[in-house]
Amino acid sequence: MLMQDILIGFAFFLIIEGLVYALAPSFLVSMARLLPTFSEGALRLAGVVAVALGVLLVFLVHG
Question: Which residues cross the membrane (predicted)?
Answer without folding.
Answer: 6-29, 41-61
